[in-house]
Every structure is written in structure tokens, then in C-alpha cells.
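The record is passed on directly below:
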Amino acid sequence: MGQDYKPGSKKDLFVKKIQRTVVMMGRYTEQVPDCPCGNVIGLVGVDQFILKSATLSTSDEAHIFHTMKFSVSAVVRVAVEPKNAQDLPKLVEGLKRLAKSDPLVQCSTAKTGEHIIAGAGELHLEICLKDLEEQYMKGASIKVSEPQVSFAETVTKATAEPDVCVSKSPNKHNRLYVYAEPLGDELSMAIEENEIRETDEAKVRARTLADKYDWDISEARKIWTFGCQPDARANLLVDATKGVQYLSEIKDSMVGAFHASFKWWVLC
């Protein structure tokens, strides 16, 4: 049972057999048929189903151990790449092992194809990169970009006149009005925890937003895009217009500008 498992659901739940039970004895392991309470043992065969932590049980009604809550978050990030192209498989496998070994580090792949490592600070990242290069990649060299810090701000109240953003077309015949309002903590958490995803069916997602979060059903069906990965997903661009024709012609431009505003500027 993974971190996202909830009793009665099948999300983050895997039913697998333990292949071997071993006792760690220095550099050696000793296979044992069983082990009494109070000992530290190794279980073989479940590694691929566990990311950072999990709960193992033989009971169908078991509850998971809650993961630790940290007072810091992964805000400093670097991009890494192998110096030699043939070491790319080692880098990918090393990042998977690094993500499992550290409870705070976050490893992801950007849309540009870059491999991103995010940590709590430069010292934390330095230790992670040292472990990645020396332990998980077996000495293969890597290139590391300059550290970048994620700055974040948010919307605390709905935009009101005269703060609504207005943009005019070059021929001055069309105007675009954009306003912002907070999503709410519950909806933001649901998006961050993948309960509501951009890939969900639009009608089903709209009904969920209307029933659980008091959204207008017509606006909930016209969500153009979510925020960009990985930090700004809990942002939505919504078409709230009524009776406007040919608006779909500017959709791609609006979505691109929306993503750029979260990726390159402060708001996220």
C-alpha cells in the first residue's frame, strides 16, 4: 500500500508475493523462513512497486502508516545530463534510485527532455548529486546546470474592477478580458494529488467540480488547460465567455501564454 492508498480503494494498492525474506548481516544476507518482531529484515520482490515508502500487510482491512511531513520543500532545482551519451540509461536508473533513497528529493523530466532534480537547498542538492554520480551511476560523469530557486505567489481574492486585465487586438475591434480568483485549498490539493487530472474526461471532471467544489457546470466544462508541471499544476485557464464566436481560434495562443507565465515568471 503506497502513500496515496485509501482503505476500500484500489489506488496505489498492489497485491504481490514476497519472494524471499533475508536478514542483513554486514555485506552479506542470510535467507530465513520467518523472523520475530523487533528485527530489521529485507524483503525481496516488491522494490518496483515502492517509490519512497509503503505499508506491507496481509490484511485486506489494514491502514497505512502516514508519511512524515517536512517543514521544508524541494524549491531548489538543477538539470542534469550525462557527459557521455551512452551513460543516459545509467542516469535514468540512477534518478529512480535516488528518488527512492531520499524522502524529500524530487526527480522529474521536463517537457524539453531535461532531467530535473529538486531539493531543499544547495547543500541537499550537492549531497544528492554526489550520491547519484558515485553510488547510483557507478562513477559515470554528469553535467549539472546552475541551481534555480522556485519563487511562488498566489491569488488571495477574486479580481475586481479596475484590476481586470484587458488586451486589444491590433485592429482594435476585439477585446480580451482576463480575471483571476483563488481555486481554494481543497481543489488545489485534489489537483496536486492527481484526484483531478487534465486527462480526465471533461464531462466527468465537470460534474465532480460542480458537485464537490461548487463550480458552475458550464464553466467547468470549458477548462482550457491546467498549469505547467511540476509546481504549478493547480492553476486553471477557464473560458468563462458566453455567446462569443470563433474564440477557439485564439485558444492555442492563450494556452501557450498561460504556461509561459507560470514557467518563466514569478507567479506559480
